[in-house]
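Lab notebook page, bench 4
Experiment: in silico fold of construct C2
Operator: M.H.
Input chain length: 530 residues
Purpose: comparison with the prior construct
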Amino acid sequence: MTRKYDYLIIGSGVAGMSFALKVAKTGSVALICKSTMDEANTDLAQGGVASVTNLLVDDFDKHIHDTMVAGDWLSDPAAVENVVKGAPDQIKQLIECGVDFDKNDEGTFDLHREGGHSEFRILHHADNTGHEIQQSLVEAVKRHPGIDVYENHFAIEILTQHHLGKIVTRRTKDIECYGAYVLNQATGKVDTFLSRVTLMATGGIGSVYHTTTNPLIATGDGIAMVYRAKGTVKDMEFVQFHPTALYHPGDRPAFLITEAMRGYGAVLRNLAGEEFMQKYDPRLSLAPRDVVARAIDSEMKQRGEDHVFLDVTHKDAEETKHHFPNIYKHCLELGIDITKDYIPVVPAAHYLCGGIKVDLNACSSIKRLYAVGECSCTGLHGGNRLASNSLIEAVVYAEAAARHAIEHHNHYEWREDIPEWNDEGTQHPEEMVLISQSEKEVGEIMSAYVGIVRSNLRLDRAWNRLDILYEETEKLFKESTVSRRICELRNIINVGYLIMRQAMDRKESRGLHYTVDYPPAPKNAEDLKL
């Protein structure tokens, strides 16, 4: 079946839904969700949204400086300024969509401070800000008559000149996107979605790693699709590991203990109960995530322990429960009273700073294709994301993409000559264990060799192991009737390759990419100043 829309949006987190709501007044919109609208990285974001709000003590220059420092000065200054200065207006728009940010007794925003921030500028809704934003946008999308939502539909490939029989390489100029092949998981049929404009908003890549805070749908689908279509993908080596995921073996994804808890005053301790951050950074527990994650990793390796502790027991119990009700409830269900007990924590793959390279209008290297949210590389994060900058980046760039797409979409025509999906000669794989075992192997390879601390030897070993899985999976994909599982496996292998390849190319320790073969240069004292 062939469907035609002005706008095709692949992904239903804050980025995809924000864009949908902004463009729906100008044309027909299809929103593709590979599971349901409720399941997205956005929904799990606890900490909040960074925006300069308290002008008595904060300003744009401070937020810009904090972002550049956290990004190890690899961030694109234009992208940083774009997001920081665009944030307040997008906060207003989120509130208009129904997002309820917490306020204090004076009626002003109850602002948090998180690692790497020099001021209190994090707007939040208790400790489940992402869920509040996601649900508000879901309701707004459902109410909009111009948006068709396709749940349990999985985008397999974007459509380009390649599907018209033309040879497309990374040197080909003017590659264009005409839509996507999309699997209807209920029927097993692949539909052709034609569009004037396509937006990639598929989120993160956490499931490439064994331990992650991401929902298991975070398999890097959009990045893999664009890479296979010969689009530009950048900065994949910069994978952020959240320092404090709840240590509870067997849980996947791992439950996140928000950065805001360290901003609130929680202290990291080893299993002997000793504070240790003073050995690693003068900012102690409020150092940026890469510093804290490496410190925890080092402490665990030196002591031969599986986790460390986060201690918030010295804070007022009622205040702690008020600020972090969901964390309190979840931990209590596991027998941990965070007002009395230390919280066992461990680093986990959390956020990708790289992705599909885009400009200030969220345009990718492929014409008619935009990318927004975690799957994109805007240049904002550079070598490391500053806490709570991601949600605001998503809505600021959704606004930019919408403005540009609205202006240009009528200049494009649908390509009616795209052939339908051809699965002739394929069959259902008889042994699903081949897929599940390969998924497990990818996670173990990436966590062991391409994790928080890397080396040339580890990356070479990952390359050799992953290459075998790639060959096996491509053969299985060509022989099998298409399914979400085989596509997701193919995507995480592609993404793993990109992380590994770009890590091998960076001959320095910078930001989130830390290698023992290229020790980092000492930090300038000014760069560390809060």
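Observations: The chain has a mean pLDDT of 91. Residues 211 and 252 are 7 Å apart (CA to CA).
Next step: discuss at group meeting.
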